[in-house]
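User: Round two. Same drill as before: sequence, then structure, for each protein.

Assistant: Same drill it is. First protein:
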Amino acid sequence: MTRSAPTAPSSPTPPPPEAVGPLMRSLSVLRELAVGGGRQPVGDLVRITGLARSTVDRVLSTLARLGYVRIEGRDAVLAPRLLELGNAYLAASELPDRLGPLADRLADELDESVSLAVPDGDGVRFVHQATRRRAMSLAFRIGDLLPAERGAPGALFADRWDAADWQRWRLRRAADPTDAGFPAVPPRPADDRPLAHRVPDTSTPDTSTRGISTRDTEAQDASAADFEARVAAARTAGWSLDDQLIEPGLVAVAMPVRDASGRTVCALSVVSHTSRLSAAELPDAVLPRLRETVSAMEYALSAPQDGPPATTASDAAPGPAHPTHAGWMRASKQELGPEFVESLARGLITLTAFGAGRAELPLTAVAEATGLARATARRALITLEHLGYIATDGKLFRLTPKVLELGFAHLSGLTLPAVAQPHLATLVERVHDSASMAILSGDDIQYVARVPTVRIMSVNITLGTRFPAYPTSMGRVLLAGLSPAELSARLALTDLRPLTRHTVTDPDRLIALVDQVRADGYALVDEELEEGLRSLAVPVHDRTGRVVSAVNVSTHAGRCSPDEARETLLPALRATAAAIEADLHIAGRYARIPAL
C-alpha cells in the first residue's frame, strides 16, 4: 500500500483570490506521482486525487510535453528532466555547490556517511549526501523528508521555533502518530520512544503494525517532552545526538552551519551504525573533525565566489526545447489543444526562473526570465507561495526546500541503465534492431542495458554479459574515451586473440582504429567478435564531457552494407546518445548517477 505524502493536520488555509485553481489541481497530480515512487497507474492517480479522468489526462499530457513525465502503457512515469525543478532550488541555495565538497571530504576522512539537511516546516529535508557503501549504511536520498523529531538535525532547527511552530508540530504528531506521511522513514507506533529502546507490551493487545502496543496520549506527551529536552540539550551543547531515533542501529551527530548573520542555514550530520560506534562513542570520535568542517563551511558561506555562478543555459532553461518565450507556449497549445494545461506549464516554468545567482528575484525579473506577462507571473507566484513552493518578503521571491518533493528523491536515485532504457526502447522502435548500452570494465565491456527486437535471426545478449573491448564497436568507442597513454598501456596488457578471421589483433593497427573512432565519434565493427555480426556504436558523455558508456545497434551483416548501416543507423544512434546525455546533464547536476 502506498504511503501518502505529509498532509496538514488541520484545515488548509483557503487559497487567495488570485491563486490559479488549475495549477493547484495539476500540481496535486505531480505530487502524488512523486509520492507513489515515480510510477503510478493513471487510474490510481484519478482515484487518489479525486480529479476527473479527463483532468488527469490533460495534466499528464502537459507534463509529457515538458519532458517531465512519460506514459508507458497505463502508467505515468517521472522522467529525469523533472530534476531541473529541484536543481533550481539547490542551485539557488548554493549549499551543495559551496558546502558539498567539504561534506564529501569529511566523509572520506571519517569513513562515515555525511549529510547536509535544511529545515522544511516541521521536517528536515536532505540537500546533500556523501554515503559509504556498506551492508548497513544510510539509504536516504537528496530530497527525502524526515520528521524533525526523528533525527539529529531536527533538534537544531526546532531551537528557532516559536509557539505557533510548536503547535503545528503537535497537531501534525497527533494527526499522524505513525509517520505514515513521511515515506522516507520506517513507520513507527504511537509509542514514540527511540525504536531501539522500545519493547513489546504483552499486557495489552497488539494494535500497531510493528508488533508493539500503542500508549496513545501518554506516549504522545512523553514524545513531546523528549523532543523538547533534546532541543534544550542541543542548544546547550551546540550539537545534537540521534540515538537510533530513525531505526535500530542508526546513530548520528549533527551541528548547525550558520551564515554571516548567525542564521542557521543547514545542519551537517555524521551518521554511523552501532556495529561501528555506539551513541556514547560517536561524539568523541567525530566532533573534533565535525567542528573543523563546520568552521570551514561557515567561511565558505561568507566568502565571495570566484567568478560568476557555475551555470549553463540548460541548467536554467525549462522544458525540452527551452521554452522561455511565449512562442513555445502558443505552439504547445496549438499542437495539443485542450490537452495542454497552460497554467501548469507556466507554474513549472516559473520555478525554473530561479537558480545559481538568482536566489531571490522580484516579480519583474521572474516575468522577464520566463517570458510570461507580469500579471500571469504574479498569479503563478501567488499560487506557488500558497502551496509552499515559494516564499516572499513582499518584494523578493525565493524557492523553498519543498520544491524537492516534486520527484527529486526518487529521480536522484536513478542509475545510468535506468536513464538509458526508455531511449533505447525508442531507438529500437525506430531502427527495428536490438540496441544496447555497455560500460568499460577492465579489458572488457559489460552490458548494463539492452532492448531486443523480435526477428527470426537476432542477437541474443543478456545484461551483465562481458566481451573483450578490442573487437567490439562499443569497446572501441569506450577505448577512444581514454587518453593515448592509457590506451597504449591497456592494449599492452590485453590478450589480443583472434576471435574470427576478421579480428584485428595488431596493437598499432588497433590504436590507429581507435584514434579514428575518436575523430569520427562512432565505431563500426564488422564480424570481428562473431562471424556475420555487424555493430555500430557511439559514445555517451556525462555533464563533464567524460565518456561514461556507449550505445550500439547490432545487426546481421547480410542485411545491409557498412555504408548503408552508417546512413540508416548512425543518425538514430547519435540522436539517442544526445537524448541520454541531456538527461544525464540534468540528473548529474547534484546527484551521482551510478553505472550499475
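Second protein:
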Amino acid sequence: MKFKLHLTNINFLLTILAFSGVALAFSVLIIKNLSEPLVGFGDTEQWEYAGFYLKNNISFTPFPHLDLINNQVFYPYGTSSVFQPWSIERDIFYGIFYSFFGIGPWIQIYYLLSVLLTGIGTFILLFKDYSFARASGAGFLIPFFSFYAIHQYPAHLGYSVFHWTALSLITDFLILKRVISGQYVSLRLILLRVCLLILSLGQELGYIAGCSLTSFTISTIFAALLIGYRYFKNKKQSLVSFIKSTAVNYKNEFFAHSRVSLALLGLWVISSFINLPLILQIAREAKSFDFTEIPAGAWWANPLRILIPFLPFFNPGQVNLDQFFNDSPEGLGAGSPGWFLLIIASVGLWQGRKKIIIFIPLLLIFLLCLLYHPIHFPILKIFPWFAFSRVQGRFTVLYPIILCIFALNINLNGLRLYNRRLLSALLVFLACTEIYTAYSLKLSAHPFYSLDNNFLQYMNYVNKQPGEAVLDWPFCVIGGNAVGGNSLCPYYSKNMAISSLRRFHNKKVMGHYFGRLHTSQIQPYIDAGWDKLFAPDIQDIFNASHQKRCFSSEEWTFFTDFYKLNDFAGINLYLDFLPQDCVNNFYTRFGKPTVETKVPGAGLVKFIPKSSQLRNQVNLNLGSHLKFEPFLDLSEADLIKFQVPYGLNLKGLTIETHQGSTWRWGLSPETLLKFKLPNSKSVTLAFSFMNPINGQDVFVEANGVTLDKLVNLSKDTNIKRRLKFKSIPGWNTVVFKYKDWNNGKVTFAPDDERKMTVNFTQLAIEEE
C-alpha cells in the first residue's frame, strides 16, 4: 500500500513537471515576451491599463470600492470609467506586482500561470474519478487545444484566461455525477465549488465569469430537481431526514478534515470580500446608463462552424468561409473547436449513452451557447449576467472544456488490436495536425511588439514635467460600440489605445477607448466643438491615416486657449497623422520638442513641454467650459460629400459608404442640423431621400417654421425638394421629424438595430 501511494506521488510530481515543461514551451511559442510589459496596439493596450487604473483608484474601507468618476481620462470634462474591460483577479495581480516591482511582464506571467493552473487543476480534479491517462489527457487538451482562446491572446486577453471557469464546469460535473449515482458528495467538494464560484467572478465579467455562473445555476437546479424527485418518489427516507443526515455527515467531515475545510472557507471569505463589493459597484454603475436607444452591434458565429477542422488546407482562417456561412465571427476559431475534440467527444458520449443523464446540464449549456444569437435568438440573456453579451463566438471558450468532459468515457478496448492501433494512430495524427495548424496560424497572425529603445525614457521625462495632464494630438475618444468613432476618433485603427500609455507617464489624458460608451459621455466634447478639429483624409475610421489639412485661424485660437487654460504638462504630438506644415506650426506656436519615441500603431511621437508663460495662464474653470463654435462654412454644408461639415452639428443622422456610394440614414425620432451664421441670409435646404416605410410621414422645419409636410408616403417613394428659408444671426436649426422607423411599427432591416427612417442621397444647406 505504501509503495502504491509512493508511486502515485511520483506520478503526480512527474505530471506536474510535464505540464510545467509544456507550459514553458507554450510561453516561448505564444507569449514570447516575458521580459517587458505587454505592448502592442488596439485592445492589447487595455489589459495593463485596467490593472493600473484599479491600483490607483481602489480603496478598502470599509469594503473594496473604486473611484469610477473622475477626469483621469476624458480630461478636463471627466467621465465614468465603469466600462473598462474588468477582470478583478488579473487587475489586482497586475496592481500588486506593479506596486512592488514597477513596470514588468506581469500580464504575460498571469496568462502563463492561468494556462498552467487550468491544466494541473483539471488533472487533479479528474484523477480520482478517472484514470491517470484520462485525467492527464484532459489536463493537456483543455488549455492547449483551446485554439479560439489562444488566438485571442493578447488582443482579447480576457477570453484567453478561464482557469476558474474550466475548473468550475469540471467540479459541477463531478458533483452531479455523484448525485445521480447516489454517491456521497463530500463537504470538501461542495466547499471547493463554492470557492470556485467566487474566484471565477474575478475573471472577465461579461462572458467568462458568466459562464461559471451559468454552469452553477443549471447544474444546481438540475441536481435539486433530481434529489427532490428521488426523495418524493421513494418514501423510504424523507427529504428532511436526508438533509439532517447529510448535515451530520458534513459536520463530522469538517472536523476530520478541518485544515482543508478551513483553508477553502478562508479563501472563499477573502475572495468574497474583494470580488463581491467591486462587482456590485461595477454592475450598479453600468446599469445607471440607458443603452436602449444606442445600437450595441452583434457578432455571430454560425453553429455549423463547429464542423470546421484545423487542417492546413481547410481551417477557420480561410476568409471565404465568412461569406459562405453568412456570419460575423470575432477572431479566428470562433465556433470551431476542431475535429479531434469533436470526434473524441462524440465517441465518448455514444459510449456513455446509458448514463447520458450526467451530461444533460453540459449538453444544455453547449446547445445554449451554440444556438445563441445576440439579436434573433438571445436565449442566453435569460441570465442577467449576459445582459450586455453581443458576441456569440466568445462562448467558444467553453467548447474544449465541455467536449473533453464528454470524451472522458471514451474506451477503445472493445476494438480488435489492429483496429484499436489504427484508430489511435489516426486520432493522434489528427490531433498533431490540428495543433500544428492552429499554432502555425497563431504564429503568423501574432506579430511581436517590443518597446522602442527610448520609450521608457520618454515616458519618464513626460512624467516629471509639471502639470496634471498631457494633450495627445490627435487623440481618440471611442467605445467598442462605435460611439464617438466618426466624430472623435477618425484614426481608430492607429491611435485607439494611446490613452492607455498613461500607465507609463501617469498623466491625465483627453481620450480613451472603452468597451462601450454612452452618447452622454462624449457630449462635453461635442458641445465644446472638438469634432470640428478633426479633418481625416477619408471618412473611414479603419483606414483613415492623417489630417488632410492643418488648423484654420479660428481653430488655432481655440486649441491654444484650451491648451493654456488647462493644466497640461505638454503635447504628445503624433507626427505621422499631421502634414509637415502643421507640425512646423506646432513648433512655432508651442516650442520645439525635447524627446521623441515610437508607439506601436500610432508611430512617431514627440513631446513639446508647456512653456512657463502658458503655464502661468492656467484657469481650470474656464478651460473646461471653453467652446469652439465656428460659423457654418456653406461651401462644406453638403452632408453626403462631407462626413462632418465644418460648423454643422448633427443629431439623428448616420453615414454609410459602400462600393464608392455614400448616403445618410435619418434616425428616429428626428434628424437635427444645428449651425451658426454671422448674419441673416437666404439659404436653401436641398435634399433627396428614398422612403422604405409605407405610410411614412416626414415634417421639415427650419427655425421652428414648417417648410414642408410629406404625409402618407408610399414605400420606395423618392422625394426631392429644394426649400428656401431665411436664416437668423447666431444659431439656426433644421429638423426632419419622422412618424415611423426600422424596428418600430415596421421592420425593413431585421439584422440592423438602428432606428432608420429615410435614406438621404442628397442633404445640403446652400447659399442663395
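The first strand starts at residue 58 and ends at 59.

User: Perfect.
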